[in-house]
Protein: TetR family transcriptional regulator
Organism: Acidihalobacter yilgarnensis
Amino acid sequence: MPRQRRVSDDDLLEKAISVFWRKGYAETSIRDLTDATGLSAPSLYHRFKDKDGLFVQVLRQYAHQGLDERLTRLSAKEDPLSAIREFLGEMVVMTLSDAERRGCLLVNTVLDGAEMSNEARTIVQERLNEVEQFFAKRLEAALEKGQLRPEADIDAASAALIGTVFAIRVMGRLDTPLERFHALVEHVMVGLPTPTLMGRTQSSQSSHSSG
């Protein structure tokens, strides 16, 4: 009798991501997971220890797929403020392209009041912190390039940007029209402490007159 092919962990995690993302940690049962993955409960326990062990791996996989490539690519952009705008724009596109209106698994987990392991919560916190650090580093680069005023509060601005990420993802679970997302992104970008037009003009005139 031929041996049954072992399903890869990646395949199992993809199926489990869909369940946790749709139902949330608290409402996802072992039965939901066995139905989605095709594995028995003992097999799931053997491979992932328990529901929380599986959820931890799901969070790692989800964050890797959703963040790693994007953060690396946008961190390499020459224009740091453009990188921030592009990050938010891509998030809007992802949010609206999801017909199920599931939002973001990481953000949903923050809002989920369910009891879960410290490891799961730590993963969520660390990955969201990476996004905020991306904003902070891009803002610091913009400050060095003269795209922000010298007195710019980087911590406050990066906090406002990560707050915008939360807003986009939560609004995405509602029937929010595209123009509302665009208005939100434009509002936070315009609110960044960039030099005034007059200040740039005076600086440019001063540069020309000294040349």
Remarks:
- The radius of gyration is 22 Å.
- The mean pLDDT is 89.
- The first helix runs from residue 9 to 27.
- DSSP finds ten helices and no strands in the chain.
